[in-house]
Design goal:
homodimer, alpha/beta, six-stranded mixed beta sheet, DhaL_dom (chains A, B), nucleotide-binding (chains A, B), 46% helix, 577 residues, globular, Dihydroxyacetone kinase family protein (chains A, B), ATP-binding (chains A, B), 16 helices, kinase activity (chains A, B)
């Protein structure tokens, strides 16, 4: 039960503000998150981590000497936006390139991936390493699909110690990947968590029961059992991890491993110690030497009651990186010389853009239509926000309506500003795209950013945009969303609507029908496709334990896309000539 | 809800075992608790802390360089026994004397006080400093009666830094007292906590309500209100503390203060940060400079949902001690050189006594009667354990029956061993006294230790013990219990029975009645007095929020004393000659 907050919407920002106020010796606030307050050696690789809020000490509590250089901090359980990641990485960069590392969740993969592209485009050498330690989230042969949980710490610590040692980006990336490949976690949960302002838990576990392998956002587990004794819990965790040894570890006997027994929020320290007592005995019996064990709360999920065990199978290369000193607000080990706190400040907001590329009269005219369309999107989402939230709560975390609202409003405002500067349709939509992705965060924010940007790019600022250009843009948007979202038709996502929409639009345009009429056909196809998603099952990652319950309910992202398509048709029909 | 345990009775011991297994770089297990695993400079004052389990990181998590030298660890919410404190202090002592410092709770005051006496008797210079920071637990003019909560950390840290600086015991004591005098805490709670194996919370707060000033074991608060916003909570905490400035701090403006925003168990980090955001603003507006603020879980109460704010008003003497480096499992600041871990081990058990003082034939005969009496006590307590627990649950924490059972069984076993060595009545009862106090812990354990020891001392090992000697012993026991327990007649404690019992016994003996007959009268007086305690209100400290509910229910300690008096009469009557 999360009780202490002001307004739920401000919770993540206010928590970050208070966190920084309490930890000025370690961190400094920058747009998008925090970076170290202590100086970093020039040329050192910057390790930038991040994710949603609600997992403290992940991620801001892990920023400091010997650990991360910066953390991008998203909203509650929502990934930071690509712009946030980009801003934090720029602030953390000290000339040696940037490693972005984070847990494997759809929204994070999207936004960190976009930030990586942007940084490389700007000439900052940047790579990503995704943490996939949760063995219950996919089979060994699909280990790349696994979620990242408390194993984050093993990968972050390894990468940061390698960076601190002055290794080049290639080596830091190699060692981070090696650490991830040799890290395995497994967890159990006894209760869900209640987000600020929510009147019900995000997900639940029946009283007296244990969900085996349940994800930290309620992603589906493997099975359910009665709450065990502490010793039984330890035996389940250890035996499960010893049964899936990583490549290169043929037998546990004689091995050395970093050990993390992680509490998820309301399993208390004494309980963790009672469990660790038995974990230590079992590892000893198996011939495994525990190196610098960590027992406590390292990656939490608000007040979720659960515990996970992580084994980080060390070798001569990894052990010194795991045991190297570190000094972050929530993670300290070894001895470091005292460090000065650099006074250097940061602007809380980036300077607003004041110029836009030259645009033709025709394109500026089309920009007015584009802005009207954005206004129509805002109205439609506003009308349907509650309905979208209800639909999303069935298979998602119920915040789709809020995210779409935040995103569409920011997109319209950015579009209006761009128009005021005389932007053409392409630039107007690209500004709107960035604003939507940045303000909304999460998966849908990123995907809508892609859609608007692709359409904007197809329209450009010089030609009079015709139906063919719009159709090219929508097709490119569908391709971009599938690529970035790693989703295909049938996964019960907006892709199930965007692909038929693009298809119908393309056909109608090929038949030579004018834009408004072609779009009408596309919107109709979208509406039918959205309804049809009710018969699909959501793919892993976005799914909740009661995913199957979502059969019969359409996907929220698919429904909002169909609603938007229809609203845009209204604008195009009105402009019809 | 505490879910992960094996057997509730073993919880505290197993948690300590797991804690040590996870923190071998910092601490080493010794009988009674833990001491630093790192070497301490010879001649340095040893700061020994302690208290019940269930408050992690208090107390074992605060042992390490720059913080405590050792911690005596009691059972769940029960003070460690005097013998535990004594053993830990002996292990921690490095020639500079010992400071025992702990929160102001009856059981801790008793046991640490006895340990202090024992250490001084052994030639180890020892003092105690009791922490009394919780302003809601007594009025300013009665500040010595206040409970110790998160302010423990301010006092422990100050004392330990002073010791680390090489100051002599007198100075360490003076600075610890000064720190306590300048430390104030105030807290609110939203829910109680559930102990391992308990099927109901130890105490509760109505859903959606906030108990203002509620103690960490459920001791009575000041008032109740609706759960506030985070900002409102911060405003209540700060304004209350600024309204009671310590002596020597006339105005907050221009002052520097250590700040501790403490979570009690299931208020999560992000919530604490949202509250701290406003706390920092308010302190700033009041002109108070926050020095090394600590925001997190420092003194918890299992899964109790609550938060407390502590202000430690610094001066030029105290600030360097507050900011000095420290490296304990759950508290680290600043930079310390790496330290070796001393391999030196400790026997888990003290060598059993194998000799007893010479005893006369008459005294050895009386010892047999004394052992029969102890056996009768065990039987009586065993029969009534559940009933005593039920009575205790009304105004106490419901563990009276368990404590009396553990204590009486240990006393009988120790008596049996002493008899095997040919002990007289005096020695037998003194061994029984130590065993009872050590095994039972808590307040009643200490008091029963006093009773048996006083009677044993009066009987001695040489004379044939007569009624007068027994009466002298019981009178001395009543005096000792009142002195040690700081309780008077009318406080609804065992004193309300022990005093009339001693009085009736003394009168009957003065009238020349034989022991058995005199004891019969005393037992009858005890039974009447025990019933009469139903009309009394428990004094603060042992009381629960629903203390007034205990009107109509007698005191469990009083009832068990009356039961024991009657059982002992049975033995004396049987021996009657």
């Amino acid at each position: 039960m999360t009780r202490l907050f002001n307004t739920p919407a401000a919770f993540a920002d206010e928590a970050l503000e208070g966190f920084v106020a309490a930890h000025r010796r370690w961190v400094r606030r920058v747009p998008g998150g925090v970076v170290r307050a202590t100086p970093t050696a020039p040329g050192q690789v910057a390790v930038v981590i991040g994710g949603g809020s609600g997992h403290y000490p992940a991620f801001s509590g892990l920023v400091g000497r010997g650990l991360a250089h910066g953390a991008a901090v998203g909203n509650v359980f929502a990934s930071p936006s690509a712009q946030q990641v980009h801003q934090v990485a720029k602030a953390a960069h000290s000339g040696g390139g940037v490693l972005l590392t984070f847990g494997n969740y759809a929204g994070d993969v999207l936004h960190f991936g976009q930030a990586e592209e942007r940084l490389n485009a700007e000439g900052i050498d940047c790579r990503t390493v995704v943490v996939t330690d949760d063995i219950s989230s996919a089979a060994p042969e699909e280990s790349a699909k696994r979620r990242g949980v408390a194993g984050d710490l093993a990968v972050f610590k390894t990468a940061a110690a390698a960076a601190e040692a002055g290794l080049p980006l290639d080596e830091v990336v190699r060692l981070a990947r090696l650490a991830n490949a040799r890290t395995r976690s497994f967890g159990v949960a006894f209760s869900g968590c209640t987000l600020p302002g929510a009147d019900a838990p995000l997900f639940t576990v029946p009283e007296g029961r244990m969900a085996v392998g349940l994800g930290i956002h309620g992603e589906p587990g493997l099975s359910e059992a009665a709450v065990p004794t502490a010793d039984e819990a330890a035996e389940l965790l250890v035996s499960t991890l010893l049964a899936e040894l990583p490549e290169g570890v043929d037998t546990p006997r004689g091995r050395r491993a970093g050990v993390i027994l992680n509490g998820l929020g309301s399993v208390k320290y004494e309980e963790l110690f009672v469990v660790y007592r038995r974990v230590a005995q079992l590892l000893d019996e198996a011939g495994v030497e525990a190196v610098d064990p960590e027992v406590g709360e390292l990656v939490t999920s608000f007040d979720m009651a659960g515990v996970s065990l992580t084994l980080f199978w060390l070798d001569e290369e990894l052990e010194p990186l795991w045991t190297a000193p570190a000094d972050a607000p929530a993670y300290r080990k070894g001895a470091l010389e005292p460090a000065s706190v650099s006074s250097e400040g940061f602007a809380e907001e980036q300077p607003e853009q004041t110029t836009v590329p030259e645009a033709s009269e025709e394109s500026r005219a089309a920009a007015r239509t584009a802005l009207d369309a954005l206004a129509a999107v805002v109205r439609t989402i506003d009308e349907h926000a509650d309905e979208l939230g209800r639909i999303d709560a069935v298979a998602g975390d119920g915040d789709h309506g809020i995210g779409m609202r935040r995103g569409s409003e920011a997109a319209y405002e950015a579009g209006r500003r761009a128009q005021g500067l005389g932007a053409g349709a392409g630039t107007l939509l690209c500004h709107a795209a960035d604003a939507w992705a940045d303000r909304a965060g999460g998966t849908s924010g990123a995907l809508w950013g892609v859609i608007l940007r692709q359409v904007g790019t197809a329209l450009g600022d010089t030609e009079r945009p015709d139906a063919a250009a719009v159709s090219r843009g929508v097709t490119a948007a569908a391709d971009g969303v599938m690529r970035l979202g790693k989703a295909e038709v049938g996964d019960k996502t907006m892709v199930d609507v965007l692909v038929p929409l693009a298809g119908a639009l393309g056909e109608a345009v090929a038949e030579g029908r004018p834009l408004a009429a072609a779009w009408d056909a596309a919107a109709t196809a979208a509406e039918a496709a959205a309804k049809a998603t009710a018969e699909l099952l959501p793919r892993l990652g976005r799914a909740r334990p009661h995913a199957e319950k979502s059969l019969g309910t359409p996907d929220a992202g698919a429904v909002s896309l169909a609603l938007i398509a229809r609203a845009v048709h209204g604008v195009l029909a009105a402009k019809n000539d």
